Amino acid sequence: MLPKVFVVCLLELIAARSVLGWNHVSRAKFENIVNEEPLALVAFVAPWTEPSKALEAEWLAATARTKTALLSIDCTAEPDLCREQGVFSYPAIRVFDGSKKLRRYKGSRKASAIVSFLNRATLPTISTLDSKNITDFKSLDEVVVIAYIPEEQTALESAFTELASRNHDKFTFGIVTDKLLAQAENVQLPSVVVHKPREGEQEVLSGPSGIEALGKFLETASAPLIGEFTRRNELKYMKAGKSLVYYFAHKPQDLDNYREALKPLAKKFKEYLNFVTVDAVEYRHMLPALGLKDSGFPALAVFNPMYGQAFPHDQKEITPKVVESFVMDIVQGKVPPLGAGGGGENTKHTEL
């Protein structure tokens, strides 16, 4: 006869397993929820695919942190529904907000980003700020954009409103019209300030600006020192004119530790290099072209998109000092590239 403690533990394990996994809904329940709820986020997945497996834990974590409806559909069980929603690759995330317009979720698939997106959805496009709420507002999101605009400058306010309307799904926007509050915040009027509380950074654009100038400023100022590389931003990174420092890992703690430790180095080289983290499970297919082995993470490599050259690190140790030394060795020609295809004969060295 099994000990009572063992039986209890076994039952708890079985119960946990039933909770900690995809909880897919039927077409009927899906239609009922998206028609009744003011906001719902739905993941259309093929459970057997690696990207869907990678999303599972993040989706469950996000579900536990929000009251908004987060649903999942198994596209192997509901293929017609998935086709109707324009799903042809997995996973795909759709936003349902009561409108008939198809909205694709384009943010990071990490729990923190999903929850931030849902929090933004509950806010107005632009929040009006005063001395009572501005301090807390600055830390509401990973990127918070605050415009300090006197009431008489209607053209700039209109441009900022347009900027917020275009980017409300990605960033949090607020406005200050009180000149005394702007003075207390030590901000010149008019100005737009981008706060990145997680990095302890902020950037300021002073003076009147049109929508085009505001857009360019926001794109540059909102970029994280160490971003997450995904299919959705791959082209943007490749066209940025900078080499990429890839860091592959699959444990959240490894990714967090790397981002924290490498911030000063990423800031030092941000004019020349883009430091990015990569989910080693979802993007495992990238490893061979970078000369990295699929047998131990974390792993690091530098890639020059202009010449298609990869520089794999030996994977023994990844610290700020080691990474900086590795980058400088590449610049000085001490580390030969693998070549565009990865794993081929070394090609002539080019600068980063």
From TrEMBL:
Q: Which GO terms describe its molecular function?
A: protein disulfide isomerase activity
Any one of the GO BP annotations: protein folding
Instruction: Give the residue range of the signal peptide.
Output: 1-21
Q: What is its main location?
A: endoplasmic reticulum
Is-annotated flag, keyword Signal? yes
Spell out the reaction equation it catalyses. Answer: Catalyzes the rearrangement of -S-S- bonds in proteins
Residues of the Thioredoxin domain: 24-119
Q: Which InterPro entries match?
A: Thioredoxin-like_sf, Thioredoxin_domain
Cellular component GO terms held in the UniProt record: endoplasmic reticulum lumen
Q: What EC numbers are recorded for this enzyme?
A: 5.3.4.1
Q: Which UniProt keywords apply?
A: Endoplasmic reticulum, Isomerase, Redox-active center, Signal
Q: What's a Pfam family this protein contains? A: Thioredoxin
Q: Where in the cell is it found?
A: Endoplasmic reticulum lumen
- First-level EC class: isomerase
As for family, the record states: Belongs to the protein disulfide isomerase family.
Functional note? Participates in the folding of proteins containing disulfide bonds, may be involved in glycosylation, prolyl hydroxylation and triglyceride transfer.
Name assigned to this protein: Protein disulfide-isomerase
> What is the species listed in this Swiss-Prot or TrEMBL entry?
Hyaloscypha hepaticicola
